[in-house]
């Protein structure tokens, strides 16, 4: 725990930490765009079967001509997937027809489709005709992207514990910039999905390493504030996405717009300081000392460069250095009792938070509101939600905040089941409220996880439990298919998962104002102390209860409470 003292000596949360956190947080403005991009690049415009030689001449004043070629579906709107085999000109007239339109022969869209370009000039749906029999490929592209995020969480988590946070973060910026930009040049759907998968991997690398670099360079008391402020960048990024998508409305241009800035992040990321904690624990104490001296100078504490020597640094972290000599793997997260309990609980919380979040956020067109406006509303609700989360994290602690946010999101999701579909504004308002609670839950879980896992295996742990979040984000779109069986079934599943995770969150240990653990032994020691304390309290309560019962028994038998001699009654 000595490294926390060294941070205080070199300035605590000083100028270096402010610049460091700001530079690490700025890319978060575009991370939301990566995760929610499918709402716009895979948006489904209004469409109908292409009519050769006639559709091109149609305009708003002659749109009625479509009646001769496109049948109406059950909701009395033009069918999206069929057309009449022969033109039915008589359907245009106002005079009643002796022919029943439902009996006329129809066929699939053999000539392709015509798309309305009001809401989207171009999307991957209109580019590769991902409609009708191919409509499942729209959600498949998002599932593949989330599969890349999942793979990246597994790979980059272990690599950053081995090669360092800074190196892997720089590489992740570069990979995202290059592959994300090349995605705009995709000539086919298959190539597009490959690029999205690889981009998703780099997104995990950016998120995981940025979180660790922040947590490992800031004092204990500043972690809550930094974690919440950092999440505001992600929130504001959702609103930026709406603006970028509305101004461009072309999926290729949108990809370039949100990926090209990562070249800038790549170039300035060389300024970052590698985690001194990680350097010491990997036998590179001299490099760690240089970084500490650099931090001291930037924070206006140059005199500390003489006081903090290699011997001082190593003496402060002697216990951690000895522990780090053993190689840690993902299995170490489950070997010991306390680490196993933490990991199992976090897996459920991460899965449910992501599952509910993307279940609400990834299908904006279903709300019947302008999709760009809906994205802004979904982003704006995060500001008050995260401010409330900040207050709760600071005063109530991580555990209560995490559990409460999940249970509240579940209650809102369940409430929406009983709201009639024609009350669209009410349903949308409840969905926005649920989105706010799940966003607050995400804010808490990133901070909570970084504080629960020790330095020697923090990135591996972050990668391990966040894989469950990626599985949740992959499963969320698939659950929507169950609407065909029972309309309320997806909401029941989303809400039920959040309830389960909410109660499980209360089983995690509190980390408010507690220094970061550096070794697995630190975590287990805290767990054992808590177990002993609970055991002693239980034994004390049992003894007190036994004494009370014995006293009551003595009174009923006429014995003095402190002796076996019968009380002489006068």
TrEMBL record:
UniProt xrefs under Pfam families: Sugar_tr (PF00083)
Major location category of this protein: membrane
Major facilitator superfamily (MFS) profile domain residues: 59-513
Protein's membrane topology: Multi-pass membrane protein
Localization per record: Basal cell membrane
Chain segments annotated as transmembrane: 143-160, 167-183, 189-213, 225-248, 254-272, 342-360, 372-393, 400-419, 425-449, 461-482, 488-508
Biased composition (Basic and acidic residues): 534-552
GO molecular function: transmembrane transporter activity
GO cellular component: basal plasma membrane
Key words of the record: Membrane, Transmembrane, Transmembrane helix
UniProt-annotated stretches for the region Disordered: 523-570
Family of this protein: Belongs to the major facilitator (TC 2.A.1) superfamily. Organic cation transporter (TC 2.A.1.19) family.
Record protein name field: Solute carrier family 22 member 6
